[in-house]
Amino acid sequence: MSTIGFLINPTKVGEHSQGPALVTQAIEGLTSRGQQVLVNEEAAPLVAGAGQPSTESDLEERVNLLIVLGGDGTILHGARLAAGRIPVLGVRVGGFGFLAEVNLEDLAGVVDRLAAGRYEVEERMMLQADVERDGMRLQRFLGLNDAVVTKSGVARVLRLTAWVNDELLASYPADGLVVSTPTGSTAYSLSAGGPIVHPRLEVIIITPISPHTFNARSVIVSRDDRVTIELPAATQDARLTVDGQVGYPIEAGDRVVVQRAVQTTKLVRLVRTSFYSILQAKLAWGGR
Predict the structure, then answer these.
(1) Could you list the residue range(s) of the whole structural domain that residue 40 is in?
(2) Tag placement on the chain: N or C end, fewer CB within 10 Å?
(3) What tens digit of pLDDT does each residue of 167-202 get?
(4) Residue of 58, 72, 134, 146 marked active site
(5) 171 and 59 share a domain?
């Protein structure tokens, strides 16, 4: 018997007309096939006692497969929770997203394969972002999409300096700087004008946000490079945000050091889908 975890966005599933019933059906299908099922405690009331209510720490420590129901934000949260160890199946509950593998309406139909472990795992590169002050590491974050340094508070320009392996890359007067993985290239980096990069590649993408100069461009560097963002002494009210969810205030003179993480995200794949067909569907790219 294996243990399967459900990390459910209760708002999205609760707003879906058949959401609770479809999730309950999938959980009951797994338990009837001999699987132990844990459900994040915030969403347990939605599934009428199906599955065992559990903390996220329990999910992280006990499950062999994590099924995440919601949008890309929920899947990103699940990816950080499961990083490097637990395969993650993203289940789309409405909305727009690149990371989900199946729709909620189709989840019950793949229960047999999940219970038997008949699926492939696609590994995605992750980033680690360290906040350093006076040569000491204050905090480390892990992300699947990106690490973003932006201003906070009043609207004004940041002056950021970016280094690659201790070699000066550029100084940016800009609203911020995005350092992303290929998976994150279709997220904030894309909206800031960055390139779309196939998610199976392993590179790091550096993209300024609304630069106040005509010659600032995205730069793609090696997966083995280390990107350091420095804030000058006059900087105030800046912030590091990882995957659009985890935030940390940074001060004048701080350094944010971003590099490839040892951990990877293990995404469950049930069908072979072309990345280019996903782009056509999600970005509404028409044919000739």
Answers:
(1) 3-119+270-282
(2) C
(3) 999 998 999 999 999 999 999 999 999 999 999 999
(4) 72
(5) no
